[in-house]
């Protein structure tokens, strides 16, 4: 009888926590639904819900663009970079894409080395991932400054219809926020690897969990690159 | 538990896979990105733009599949988790497709009534 009441109670109830503390206690209590650790299950839970956020944004962008009462600007021209006296379309965006893919690659290797217990390599690779992410962000800031300089605003756009401005700032802005959060998260994990936090816990799964988040950020960029910049 | 854990069981419980897999996926992601960039740059006859859009969408779906399958390790997770993750995402794609179809309709109606 004692045991069944304990099972019926959630972590928040048994610890008498309410509000956000209660929510955190419930989400982090050691419940079993899938045979993965709770931390990993919750990261997947977050990623799927976040996929819906970006799905809604991309749906809204598609709706605004297809039903737009005017021509959509040519992204190839707007995001062209001058190199050796010639305009190369979308060069900056292509470089950003390769940087983010590379950061996903270093992240995947970092997870592997962390599980092998190779602290030094894991540390260097996660740090490299964070630095590549920061480089990506720097280029995005450059791009925002350029477009704001041209007079693009969320409500107006000198190259054509204003919907382009709102879609640009909404999609890249939200993605950039995720990258920013990801870089900070990566730096925190870097420090924990370096100071031996995971080693003491005897479990490097925290590295895989930050990896899941980081790959998701890369995944969202795949679709922004394809649907916003290329198409 | 910690004493009986051999390298083998670690590999089974955690996501440790040959590094070659990651380098291959990495390479394919580069190739597919370059391919979609090239497809975008090549000048198409406007009436054939649908080919361009189809290819770019196809490459994006392939890239995302590679990332989720290998980098996010879904290939090696239990099916209960895989299904729980993949099935809602299918509805996201459906939602985007429905929104796109509906706005095409809106644009057609506007053209029919207002002209232009």
Briefly, what is this?
The complex is a heterodimer of chains A (231) and B (116). By secondary structure, chain A is mainly α. Helices cover 75% and strands 3% of the residues of chain A.
What's the total count of β strands of chain B?
A: 0
Number of helices of chain B: 4
Distance between the termini of chain A: 62 Å
Query: What is the helical fraction of chain B, as a range of percent?
Result: over 70%
Portion in helices of chain A? over 70%
Assembly state of the chains shown: heterodimer
CATH architecture of the largest domain in chain A: Up-down Bundle
Q: Which overall shape of chain A is indicated by the principal axes computed on the Cα atoms?
A: globular
The helix-strand sequence of chain A is: HHHHHEEHHHHH
**Regarding CATH, which class of the largest domain in chain A?**
Mainly Alpha
Mean pLDDT of chain A: 88
CATH fold type of the largest domain in chain A: Four Helix Bundle (Hemerythrin (Met), subunit A)
Radius of gyration of chain A: 22 Å
Described by strand count, sense and barrel closure, the largest sheet of chain A is: 2 strands, antiparallel
Q: How many separate domains of chain B?
A: 2
Helices and strands in order, then pairings?
The complex is a heterodimer of chains A (231) and B (116).
Chain A: H1 2-8, H2 11-14, H3 19-28, H4 38-66, H5 75-78, E1 81-83, E2 86-88, H6 91-115, H7 119-150, H8 163-194, H9 197-201, H10 205-230
Helix pairs in contact in A: 4-8, 4-10, 6-7, 6-10, 7-8, 8-10
Chain B: H1 7-13, H2 19-41, H3 49-71, H4 79-114
Report on the structure:
The complex is a heterodimer of chains A (231) and B (116). With 231 residues, chain A is mainly α. Chain A has two domains: 1-31, no CATH class; 34-230, Cytochrome c oxidase, subunit III, four-helix bundle (Four Helix Bundle (Hemerythrin (Met), subunit A)). Chain A contains ten helices and two strands. Chain A has helices at residues 2-8, 11-14, 19-28, 38-66, 75-78, 91-115, 119-150, 163-194, 197-201, 205-230, and strands spanning 81-83, 86-88. In chain A, strands 1-2 form a two-stranded antiparallel ribbon. In chain A, helix 4 runs antiparallel to helix 8 (163-194), helix 7 (119-150) packs antiparallel against helix 8 and helix 8 (163-194) runs antiparallel to helix 10 (205-230). The longest helix of chain A is centred in the middle third of the chain and has 32 residues, at 119-150. Chain A is globular and about 60 Å long. The N and C termini of chain A lie far apart (62 Å). The model of chain A is unreliable at 1-7 (pLDDT under 50). Chain B is mostly helical. Chain B has two domains: 1-77; 78-116. Chain B is 77% helix and 0% strand. Chain B has four helices and no strands. Chain B has helices at 7-13, 19-41, 49-71, 79-114. The longest helix of chain B has 36 residues, at 79-114. Chain B is flat, with a radius of gyration of 21 Å. Chain B starts with 6 loop residues before the first helix and ends with a helix. Mean pLDDT of chain B is 84; it is low at 1-12. Chains A and B meet through helix 4, helix 6 and helix 10 of A and helix 2, helix 3 and helix 4 of B.
């Amino acid at each position: 009888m004692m045991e069944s009441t304990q099972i019926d109670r959630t972590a928040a109830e048994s610890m008498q926590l309410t509000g956000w503390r209660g929510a955190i206690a419930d989400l982090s209590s050691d419940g079993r639904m899938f045979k993965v650790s709770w931390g990993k299950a919750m990261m997947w839970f977050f990623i799927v819900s976040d996929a819906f956020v970006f799905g809604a944004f991309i749906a809204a962008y598609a709706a605004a663009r297809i039903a737009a009462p005017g021509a959509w600007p040519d992204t190839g021209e707007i995001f062209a970079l001058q190199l050796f006296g010639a305009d190369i379309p979308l060069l900056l965006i292509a470089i950003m894409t390769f940087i983010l893919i590379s950061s996903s690659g270093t992240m995947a290797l970092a997870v592997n080395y962390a599980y092998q217990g190779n602290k030094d390599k894991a540390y260097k690779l996660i740090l490299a991932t964070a630095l590549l992410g920061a480089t990506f962000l720097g280029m995005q800031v450059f791009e925002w400054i350029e477009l704001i300089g041209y007079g693009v605003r969320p409500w107006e756009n000198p190259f054509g219809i204003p919907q382009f401005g709102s879609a640009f700032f909404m999609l890249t802005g939200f993605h950039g926020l995720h990258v920013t959060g990801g870089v900070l998260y990566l730096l925190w994990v870097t420090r924990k690897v370096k100071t031996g936090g995971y080693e003491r816990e005897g479990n490097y799964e925290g590295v895989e969990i930050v990896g899941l988040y980081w790959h998701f950020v890369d995944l969202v960029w795949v679709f922004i690159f394809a649907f916003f910049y290329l198409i | 538990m910690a004493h009986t854990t051999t390298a083998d069981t670690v590999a089974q419980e955690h996501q440790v896979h040959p590094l070659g897999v990651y380098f291959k996926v990495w390479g394919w992601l580069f190739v597919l990105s370059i391919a979609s960039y090239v497809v975008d740059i090549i000048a198409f006859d406007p009436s054939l733009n649908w080919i361009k859009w189809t290819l770019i969408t196809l490459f994006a779906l392939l890239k995302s599949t590679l990332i989720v399958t290998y980098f996010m390790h879904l290939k090696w997770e239990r099916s209960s988790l895989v299904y729980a993750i993949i099935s809602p995402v299918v509805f996201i794609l459906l939602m985007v497709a429905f929104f796109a179809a509906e706005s095409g309709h809106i644009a057609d109606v506007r053209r029919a009534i207002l002209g232009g």
